[in-house]
Amino acid sequence: MIDTIAVSGEAAEVALGEAQAVLAMVQDDERRGRLAELVAAVGEGELAEDDAEALAELLELGLQTGRIRAQYGPGGEQAALRLFRKLPRGQELSESAREVSGALASLVGKPLTGAGIEATGPGTFLVSLSTDGVELSVRLDRNGVRLTSVGL
User: Fold this and answer.
1) Which residue from 36, 58, 61, 135 puts its CA 20 to 30 A from 73's CA?
2) Number of domains, the chain
């Protein structure tokens, strides 16, 4: 459970614009109701957990497709990124990146004896690195970065 997340300034403008744009296109009454709640929450400047999840989905899609940068420029994109990192989904991605970075730090100063990248599916890659005594495999996909195996 999260506390409320404050949304203001340019990040609020981008979030509100994206939520309103999707709301205008959605036909399903349930989704329309959910998006209307999100628009209201952003307008009030505070997001509860459900609102944060819904906004994370919108921002993630807008950032991945380049829509946010195209609509709001580089400043809007940066504001959306800062807001996304405050949301639980963004925090999860940041935490997984820190965990993988910690594992990769075990390779610092050791001679690299092997490296490879394998495409394991659409938008999914496996990066393998090995040194004398340590092998790491890291999965990269739309869900983030994860350490998939460590061999000693």
Assistant:
1) 36
2) 2
Q: Is residue 82 located within the same domain as residue 113? A: no
* Per-residue pLDDT tens digits for 67-84: 999 999 999 999 999 999
Same domain for 63 and 18: yes
C-alpha pair distances (Å), 35 with each of 18, 21, 22, 42, 116: 10, 10, 8, 10, 43
CA distance 117 to 59: 28
Q: Same domain, yes or no, for 113 and 78? A: no
3-class secondary structure, 92: helix
Sequence-distant (6+) residues with CB within 8 A of 118 are 125, 126, 128
Q: Quote the pTM value.
A: 0.79
Task: Quickly count: other Cβ atoms within 10 Å of residue 15's Cβ.
Answer: 28
